[in-house]
Request: fold
Amino acid sequence: QQLANKANNTGLVLDVQTFMWGFLYYPLDWSHYRVQMNMHARLVDATSGKVIAQASCSYIPNEDDKDRPTYDELMANHAAVFNAKLKLGGDYCFDAMRKTLLGR
Reply:
């Protein structure tokens, strides 16, 4: 209901939450890391406060991913690689959740 109130009780509200983001080493490859994230989105009718649709996404690169940076590579240049991989994860989840929420 708080989301509906913030939208003046009209229209639709898209509520997106990131539950986890970070990096973790690959199993059995402890010197290389992958960036992961979990997100959840819900589309709320601000008039009624009811959830119309919801979707979740987990972004975890495959075990066979060839691009496995070291910690130093992730953190170099103000964490440029880490931030780029977070953007990849966010884009992946955005597309996946958009398809679930909107059917396209």
